[in-house]
């Protein structure tokens, strides 16, 4: 009888080990099919810009964070929440610049994309520097970002809306 008990323990031990080995695998492989499906999706169908004019887009998505950021950049934030607010507005502008690539103009598409990518990259740099609470680097990247915003305004808006840092 004792022999059977030992055998039973061994069998359940092997079973437990096998199960433990399997479980993480099940968890690890689960997200893969979903990700594969997403990657197969046609991005052009999934990503649809909201139907507003360029004017309403700039006014609605860019103007408010720009105005807040301009104030935030006047002097170094003194606490965590102030840094967080600065970072948030920089991120909104960086991601909004990204979305401009979905709204290509009829002509000069390459220039449009370049200004958008450059503004996005500089905006991302503000976010990164602000995360480290490095005000000098944040401010420098912010000024660079505005240069790129303005470069687009110069070409596509005949120099209107030149934004001051
Ligand atoms: C790829 C081109 C492009 C980039 C990059 C760009 N803008 Fe603009 N922006 C425009 C155009 C076009 C208009 C004019 C829209 C209109 O009034 O028809 C405009 C207008 C504006 C206005 C004026 C809105 C109003 O009330 O009339 C603000 C503010 C503005 N942009 C902020 C920004 C900021 C901040 C950035 C950078 C983070 C930026 N833009 C980057 C194309 C761009």
């Amino acid at each position: 009888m004792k022999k059977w008990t030992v055998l039973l323990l061994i069998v359940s031990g092997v079973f437990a080990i096998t199960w433990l080995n399997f479980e993480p695998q099940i968890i690890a492989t689960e997200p893969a099919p979903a990700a594969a499906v997403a990657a197969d999706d046609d991005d052009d169908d999934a990503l649809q810009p909201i139907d507003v004019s360029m004017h309403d887009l700039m006014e609605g998505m860019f103007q408010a964070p720009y105005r807040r950021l301009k104030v935030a950049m006047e002097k170094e934030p003194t606490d965590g929440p102030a840094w967080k607010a600065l970072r948030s507005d920089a991120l909104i502008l960086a991601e909004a610049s990204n979305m401009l690539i979905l709204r290509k103009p009829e002509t000069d598409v390459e220039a449009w994309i370049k200004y958008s990518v450059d503004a996005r990259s500089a905006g991302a740099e503000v976010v990164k520097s602000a995360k480290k609470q490095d005000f000098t680097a944040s401010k420098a990247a912010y000024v660079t970002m505005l240069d790129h915003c303005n470069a687009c305004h110069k070409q596509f808006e005949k120099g209107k809306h030149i934004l001051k840092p």
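The radius of gyration is 26 Å. Residues 54-55, 58-59, 62-63, 66, 93, 97, 100, 112, 115-116, 119, 145, 149, 152-153, 156-157, 161, 163 surround heme C (CB under 6 Å).
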